[in-house]
Amino acid sequence: MNYLYLILPVVIFLLLGIRIVRPTHRGLIERLGKYKKLANPGFHWIIPVIDRLFLVNVTEQMVDAEPQEIITNDNLNASVDAQVYFRVKSDEESVKGSIYNVNNYNWQIVNLARTTLRNIIGTLTLKSANSERGKINSGLYKTLHEETKNWGIEIVRTELKEIDPPRDVQDTMNKVVKAENEKIAAIDSATAAETVADGVKRAKIKEAEGYKQSKILHAEGEAEAIKLVNEAADKYFIGNAQLLRKLEALEASLGNNAKIVIPTGSDLVNIIGEMAGIVPLERKQK
Fold first, then answer.
1. Where would you tag: which of 2, 11, 234, 280 has the fewest CB atoms within 10 A of its CB?
2. Helix extents (H) in the chain
């Protein structure tokens, strides 16, 4: 029974010294206030009261720089917010640096990011600040990377979350953008209407040219037909045949009670006279 009283305190003492380090962390073991060694993931035993274990998260972390009012170069207030992604490097010197070289690195990163944003955006106009987010991110990343080298920290990336102007300025900017969009839409509409009008105009011209060409071809065809008729008449209706054709035409005209004026001395008058028993004018003179 006496042995139990001796063993129990020893067991409790041993249990109090057990420490487990997860893979997401690294540990620093101090003995009587002095750095002793790095505690990697796994089981560790420290001397209670004499030794202390400080855990450091080595996974990627994010801190929000929190919204702040910044005066731009054109004297406008803008609400600016950014996020910083970082991680403590897992080697021994970096873990030591995150504990011994900086006091509360999360808080330090936030304030350094806020100060850097004020310095960068203060040299830009509100319009350029909105259009040059990449430049602002690059400047913020570069400054944080340089300033945190001795902290054992790696800045992974920075993200400019928002740059919001005051409400009245934002309303004015929205109206300007709306007016520009309406202007572009009006220009596009006018251009489209002009294109349609040009198309209609070209179609009308083509139609007129086609009508003109068809008239020319029709007239040429009629002229050619008349020419062929005359040539056929001269060729086939020779002498009395021609007179016979004229009589047929005269007969058709008289049948319609039409008045025909025939020049004197023509063969047609002589033929009609012979048919009526009258001596032709030329024979009478002989």
1. 2
2. 2-16, 92-100, 105-121, 126-131, 133-147, 167-236, 240-255, 267-276, 281-285
What would you report as the CA-atom Rg of the chain, rounded to the nearest whole angstrom?
Answer: 56
The amino acid that residue 45 corresponds to is: W
pLDDT of residue 53: 94
240-255 vs 167-236: helix axis angle to the nearest 10? 120
pLDDT band at 284 (very low <50, low <70, confident <90, very high): very low
Q: Which residues of 108-146 are buried (b: 16+ CB within 10 A; e: fewer)?
A: bbbebbbebbeebbeebebeebbebeeebbebbbebbee
Dump pLDDT digits (tens) for 34-51: 999 999 999 999 999 899
Give me the pLDDT at residue 278, please: 47
Measured CA to CA, the distance from residue 215 to residue 115 in angstroms comes to 86
Q: Strand pairing partners for 31?
A: 34, 51
pTM listed for this prediction: 0.57
Say if CB 97 and CB 48 are below 8 A apart.
no
| CB neighbours of residue 84 within 10 Å | 24
Tokens (6 digits) for 53: 């274990």
Judge contact between 139 and 118, C-beta under 8 A: no
| Dihedral angle sign, alpha carbons of residues 139, 144, 149, 154 | negative
